[in-house]
Amino acid sequence: MDVLSRLLSLHPVRAALDIRCRFGEPWNLRHQALASGVAPYHFILEGRARLELEGRPPLELQAGDLVLFAHGAAHAIYTAPPGAASAVRVVDPAAPVRLHVNGDAGGSGQPLSDFLCGQFHFESPQSNALMQAMPEVVLVRGADLAEGHGLRMLATLLRDECGGIDGSGALREGAQAIVAGLASALFGLALRAWLEQGGPQPGLLALLGHLRLHKAVQAMLDAPQQEWSLERLAGVCHMSRATFARQFRAAGGATPGQVLQQLRMAHAARLLGSGTMGTAEIGEAVGYRSEAAFNRAFKQYSGAGPGSYRRRLRSGEAA
After folding, report:
1. Does residue 317 have a pLDDT over 70?
2. What is the DSSP letter of 141?
3. Under CATH, which number does the domain 205-318 receive?
4. What is the pTM of this model?
5. Is residue 110 within 8 Å of 24, Cβ to Cβ?
């Protein structure tokens, strides 16, 4: 399994897509800040918009662009100031994907904006590492995607399942489940496209794009139970110890030891939630010879000991 696939499997993210907006100009939407662990996104299917975030210059959005707010920041997306925008109404509040329109949607010949809105939920403790590795705004430019790119194809599928080209069609049988599955794929495709477009700031994701350093992350993921010294990891990357340590810290924003600890704990959390292995066995599987040492490390990482964490997961599944 490749490095990105492993990271996504270790850092679970729940996706939701619940709103489709079809607005004729002028329009203006303002979004309040969300709780930690909830990342709203907008996927522009047609038209244009301007994005405004406090303390940053406005960004122009075009069809095919996807913008994600990894830390739930308040923002505005619009084509006109609030006072000049027409009122928004919800066509069917009970629909699984609610259609929002305004007075000018398709009725006055005004340019149309069509976009999807949802959230990614970083609910598990191990998901925090992935969330923290992303900047406040993650922007994928649709114009820079190759023809046939997965994100382009996904936009077509989502539009079709969310009511078709004009957004007026009722959802077909199975559409709710299909949209949920497509929304889950959206996060992985968007993250990969963002990496390809050179997006990462220093952090875990930046290491994936590094020509040599990604091999060290791959080695840690493949064998978290091994004793990965600086010398061994530098050797995997065909670098000197000093050069490896310096470049790793610059790209990853953390030492190799800190990243190894993070990956080990994420792997342990996954094992606690997916099987029946005892805590001592799980600790050994992620490089701990002492169950007590593993318990201390895991509690520091997740806020709960391995046993409490497992019980909490199972009670949540039961609920």
Report:
1. no
2. -
3. 1.10.10.60
4. 0.84
5. yes
Q: Where are the domains of the chain?
A: 3-199, 205-318
DSSP 39: E
Environment class of residue 233 by beta-carbon count within 10 Å: exposed (0-12), middle (13-18) or buried (19+)?
buried
Among 98, 182, 83, 197, residue whose Cα is nearest residue 138: 197
Give the number of other Cβ atoms within 10 Å of residue 208's Cβ: 21
Q: Tell me which of 72-81, 190-199, 278-287 is least confident.
A: 190-199
- Tell me the C-alpha distance between 246 and 237, whole Å: 13
Contacts of 46 by beta carbon, 8 Å cutoff, 6+ apart: 63, 112, 113, 114, 115
pLDDT digits (tens, 9 = 90+) for 246-264: 999 999 999 999 999 999 9
Residue type present at position 187: F
Helices (H), 94-240: 128-132, 150-161, 175-196, 204-208, 214-222, 230-236
Homologous superfamily (CATH) for 3-199: Jelly Rolls (2.60.120.10)
